[in-house]
Amino acid sequence: MKIICIGRNYREHAKELNNPVPEKPVFFMKPDTALLQKNNPFFYPGFSKNVQYETEIIIKINRNGKHIEEKFAHKYYDEIGIGIDFTARDLQAEQKKKGLPWEIAKAFDGAAPVGKFIDKNQFSSLDDIHFSLKINGELRQQGHTADMMFSFDRIIAYVSQFISLKMGDLIFTGTPSGVGPTQINDHYEAFIEGEKLLDFNVK
Ligand code: ZN
């Protein structure tokens, strides 16, 4: 499986990092070795002094496809979840300055904690889903899918023009504003509409 991540999908987050608002989705990938499941701990990597959290809704792809039309994209996922796109912001800043790829800052082991998935049909509209992150019991990030520039279906249509999607692939759909640093011993809890789907510690 592979993990595809959308960057700059929420206007306020693009602004907080002084990034231009994109006309097309921006995406990058994380390898399967970045996946952290079953609420296993995240080990703070020694190569960074500024690992930051980005809380994101995840789409789980349920069948293989390529060149998927936006109007059929909804058939390619039944479940959504929540995860953290951990980012070594110091390394990413270096890469951005030099115009180099971001993998060193985004694709490292454990950089993609993923929680439990839930049926998308429990929501009356996928454009009206609230999600949030608490660290050590304190609310740190809140998002609303209505604020996405590119919908789940648009993202699937766009990405599948370039890369075939396969059953089990995950797509991180971008973070709202409010990203920030993490510390060893932080306790993460992430929620979709108040339901806790992810719960892990940083070690
Ligand atoms: Zn992200």
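^ zinc ion complex. The domain at 3-37+51-201 is CATH 3.90.850.10 (Fumarylacetoacetate hydrolase; domain 2). The chain has four helices and 15 strands.
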